[in-house]
Amino acid sequence: MSVEILVEKRDRTTWLLSFSGCACVTLGTSWFALAQLVSGSVQTNIGGGLLSLGTGFFSVTLLMSGIRDESPEVDLQVAQIAALGVVLSAVLLMCCKGFKLLRRPLLQPRNYFFYGTYTYAVGSALYIVPIIYDLDAITASVHENMAPVGALCLSIGALLLMLFSSRSALNLDVTLSDVFPSTTRLHVGLLQAHCAVVASLAVVCGRAWTAIAGLLGAFDNSWTAVAFGDLVLVLGFACLAASLVEGRRGGSVFGPRSSVMDRSRGAGVALRAATLGSVALLSAASVCRFSARVFLAGAGQDDAGRYFDLVGISSCVCTASQLLAAACVVWRGYWVQPFMHPGNYFVLAMFLSATGDALVACAAFFGADNSGGTGADLEHFGGAVSLIGAILLLLHASMALETQTIGAYQGNCVERNDGYERTGVEPWDTDELPWKEVEVLICGGGPVGLTLASDLGLLGIKVLVVEQRTEVISDARFFILNSSSMEYLEHLEVAEDITREGVAQDIPFGAVWTDGLSHPCARILAAACVPGRSHCQEKLATLDPITISRLCGSTHTNAVPQRIMQSKQEKVMKASAESRASVEVLYGYSLLRFREVQGDGSNSGFVEAVVEQVRDGTGETNAQYQDYRVRAQYLVGCDGPGGRVARDLEFRYDGFANLTKTTSFLIKSKEISQHVLKNVGASNQYQVTRPGVGGAIVTHVEPDEGLWNFIGSWVHHPKRWASNPRGVIREFMGPMNYEVLTEKSWYWNFFIARNFRRNRILVCGDAAHSWPPVCGLGGNTGYGDASNLSWKLAAVVRGWGGDVLLDSYSVERRNQCLRTAQCVMVCMPRPRMLLLLCRIWANFRRIPGVMKILQWKWVSGNSGVRGGQHHCTEGVQLGIRHDFSPVCVTEAVIPPDDPFCKYTQRVVSGGRLPLVMLSSGSPIFSILSKSSYTLLAAISEAEVEALTSACGDSQGGQQQQARHPAIGESARCLVAAFGSISAPLKVVGLHQGEHALVSTNLPGTRVEAYNLVQNEGLILVRPDRIVAWHLPWKSAHVAITSTEASYIALTVAGRGASDEAAKVQSAQNSLGWLTSRFLYSLRPFGFAFPQAVALENQTKDDAVAQLRLKKGANGFEATTKGSAVSDPEFNPVVPESALSVEIVSGSVTAQTSSG
């Protein structure tokens, strides 16, 4: 093959690769810009659009020059300069946003947007310079030297942007929170994690340089450039070896997983040494290959073969060392399922790099003349495979650095309840007040407080509920109950009442994008709806993911979400609570003051409180009621985000206050309802966009009554909205008549309490956590609090539950809330970006293709089948496991929590029991005890009777032993262990009878659930459907001993198991880890919402003081919902003279001078 033909082939290949690369960059940046349209920033959107335009223009000029079959003429060169100028300006615009978000540590993955855009800018500049250098004849030497560097910079920049974008797409935030072994234990220490990131960056640069230099210079035999890539690889592998050196370990949260991951403890040191040695060998082999390629560049034809052999041998050593490193990591137990899980990226990176080096070795052995043919093709392909492996290594190192960064801050986030040393005793002059003796006092009569009271009343606990309102609320507020909440309400036997009071069963779920409601020319722009609740109930187990996401439900439950206004929820739950014989509900009463009295030898302590009837404006008190003095064993604050209980005891919070202000209106118009149902179509939510006005969300909360909830957050003229909101509402609702029933202004707040318990005082619902109205997770999380707390309170009050049982409430619910907060942060709407979307629609909707793109984006955003799309919350509802709960028996191997949008059924301690059907036609949840643990056993009902009866037939026992010897003996030991601590235990046999599992004609997800439960011999289930312990059939060949059974009973009852202190400490460390992640993730909120006030282990009064200081004394507005910073129903800043704390036998007392 002649030199001229090789040069022509090289030029054609270079042109084809350049054009293909520019086309791919065009498509990629277009996709990136669309993906960032709602959740990104203005700079990102404009920059991404310009970047797409510039690269597209440049690719067209390349195509034209290739068609002309000659060097680019002056007009094409000018066009290329203009195109690359647009690219450079776009990237610099995005760099401004990246610099604004830059924060420490500098190498963390959240800064990849900054590094990616700046590297992309450098690459663009390196492409522009040689073109500008000489328009008539580009200097060959300049172009040849700068073009590969520019290509490398563009590749690295695109890679970093891809890694930045993949965080939400791959749910890496959830991955990191689960502390996977390969991201935490290979690089133990912050310094080692930094070394790993530097090493992986060097490896990526070396692999990319080698691949590019090989493609561009292989035909000229320019091995010097390729050798330079090997030199960078040497430095990278040396840093990688340094990152594997044992260092100071991170937080002790790694302990529980670390204790079960090392499969060969005795060989642990040897395996670590082998891993380190294999990477060191890899570095040495890379040095040999670098030297061989340097000599190859100046070698003659006779010596070239020898140096090619040396390259091949060095590549073989690299292959073997990388495979050895991967094998050592797998043998040490650092491998998780599924195969492509991010926790396996180190092993996969080593394997792919080894494959690439093997191909390079083959190329060296098979093709000594590396100027073309099979040898060159193998080397190029091997370089590409190795580059993919290097990318995975960089992603692994980035996750390790972020994990270690968060773990280093973990100790500051562990709640330490050291008590309060305060003085200032003021006696209570309330002896004349009548007493009320109850077991639980609940402050707050909202949905959560009433639900908790109803559940406790169902369990026979004497409860008093006080609520300062005189009647239930009248506005919409929270108006959807998800599948998890509906399951709980079925447990309370009120689901039918909720369904009857809620929205009609045939009204579709989902959303409609329209340009008007009652306007004569209103039309649907896009729709994302699914059939109504009655249709979905029939086929729930077989529904597709998009339908499930629009329902906000799950195929793994037996309950379909229900839309119902909060006012009607309160009405139903108030009636349910009042129907319980042991529950008393007092509306029009407020908690005036309270104190906790510590126990002594004669009593166990109690909470004493004064509840006062709310005075009217004249200061007169209704004679029908009177004030009371209440004594209770426990006090639960369900009094909302501005609650007195949490504020007076100075509960501390993390998060942000005052993110943004929103005003919602409850509107009534049957005329508009009928018009919309007839002409626009039925739906749950209407997203209305009006040209020149903006966008609004209008929810049809009660179609039969003509009730609408209007939120207008995205208007083009904020001053007009502030001065005349009802005039703006008319723009969206249309010309038909309507009536505004209520108007509520409130701030979006985002905070979670550091602890949900202080001795005998607990907080629940919005008093413990609050976040923006995204995903309907605010109120539903409150229902989850009540479900978790009710049976634990009843157990402790009845005496069979220990104090650790109440500690587990705080541990488990904070675990749930901190993970739910991650989902809410991903789905948080950015009002400015939504307003930008409205403007794009208003100004460019008539341009061909623009409307299609907007419709596609809207439908995708309302069909949440992956993380970051707020409709799909199945994983948040059902997939969070209480790994470190002190009342769950720890698993041998702890599986990770599920992503936000997906739930994987498992029988695992701390996880939800899979839903299976019984032969009676009922779900398995219907046979669970409402007040105690239930033992599900693979034995028959007759064997259960023989097991639990005091005078059971010994013959029956013999039959049980004959059929299921280990299962029967284990069940007997557990029954005896629970009986020894006077803890109730319900035993249910699943082998035969009406409680037998159904195995035929199972729809959808029920088949998988049946197989999972069928593989278990014993399952110990809590009343809230969480598995506390289980015994699989594969482990049931040997029965558990009485000692093991006693340990299980003491653990799940919170009664002082042998490792109780260690379990509580592990739980606190785990929550410290999650809290540090929560704070770490909240940092960007300060940029997206500059008016917000950050909270880190602060009280709400601290937040009020900061807000007043930030806004000024005259600029602070009180609103009616959101937190203590915005509730006018009380003054959030209490004068020092009105607050005193009393110590009664070592107890804490908070008093305020008024209700």
From TrEMBL:
Pfam family, one: FAD_binding_3
Keywords linked to the UniProt accession: FAD, Flavoprotein, Membrane, Transmembrane, Transmembrane helix
Cofactor: FAD
Database matches in InterPro entries: FAD-bd, FAD/NAD-bd_sf, RIFMO-like
Gene3D superfamilies noted in UniProt: 3.40.30.120, D-Amino Acid Oxidase, subunit A, domain 2, FAD/NAD(P)-binding domain
Organism superkingdom: Eukaryota
Molecular-function GO terms, alphabetical: FAD binding; oxidoreductase activity, acting on paired donors, with incorporation or reduction of molecular oxygen, NAD(P)H as one donor, and incorporation of one atom of oxygen
Bilayer-spanning residue ranges: 15-34, 46-67, 79-100, 112-133, 145-164, 195-219, 225-245, 266-287, 343-368, 380-401
Domain FAD-binding: 437-815
DNA damage listed as a keyword: no
The protein, known as: FAD-binding domain-containing protein
